[in-house]
Design brief:
The complex is a heterodimer of chains A (160) and B (128).
Chain A: H1 3-21, E1 39-47, E2 52-59, H2 60-71, H3 81-103, E3 110-111, E4 115-117, E5 129-136, E6 139-147
Antiparallel strand pairs in A: 1-2, 1-3, 1-4, 2-6, 5-6
Chain B: E1 3-8, H1 12-25, E2 29-35, H2 38-45, E3 52-55, H3 64-73, E4 82-86, H4 91-99, E5 104-107, H5 112-123
Helix pairs in contact in B: 1-5, 2-3
Chain lengths: 160, 128
Amino acid sequence: MGEIVFRQALRDSVDEVLEKMFFAETLGELSGPDEAGEAITVELTFQGEPSGWMCLRLTADAAREIAVDFLGIEDGAEISNDRISEVVRELANMICGSVLSRVESAATFRLGVPRIVACCEQCTESPRNTCYRAQLSHGRLTVNIGAGTTKCPQPVQSAY
Amino acid sequence: MAYRVLIVDDSPAMRTFVRRVIDISGFEMSNCFEASNGGEALDLLRHEWVDAILTDINMPEMDGQEFLRRLSEDEVLRSIPAIVISTDATMHRIAVMTSLGARGYVTKPFLPETLRAELERTLGVPCG
């Protein structure tokens, strides 16, 4: 599968999922490495042709906003980190499924269970990965997708 | 007429979202039941009648595929229309779920009006 096809599928999937399911939109593509700061990262693997992995990183403010919009929580109401991580896992699941449905519409695939990881070394540009970074109204989102076996760290205790 | 709907999904967030989207869409729902997998849904259906089932595919313990297979084998429950809600939009998966008795298929992401239209279509609700 060509990198250009994957990149377009990734961009379209992020935009469509955010618009339809989270009532949000991207405010433009970003370049350069992710800034340091509090964030939540979710990783999931997929089996199919090809098999691979996807990482989604959201800054803390963006993750909270996404969760509030998805669950319909009123402004100012409390939302736990558990609820936020649950929603971000669901977001990762939808983006990955949408990308794979676009590039493998005639084949079949199986998604793994999204898991919170402490950080993701693969969320950096690499010729083997396809990365999309976007500005959201309350932070930023980074999605990285690649073929092969994940090298993301094992789940660890985190704020989420 | 208001309908009784069962949402089957292992994600509490997704169940909350689907319930919310049904409300937003204007679909008339009198009762909304929830189950986190196919087994829980079958247990619930022994005690509660519903007009429609919305089910995910990938779930622990009993997934949506096995759930639909069990529904199709039950002489009473097979009459309840089941709609699959899934991220998997591949032709293969849609064909498999349809062959197991799914009356509708909604791929994530979806708009509220899409879910409403699929519910109304499978329930035979007149348009407008």
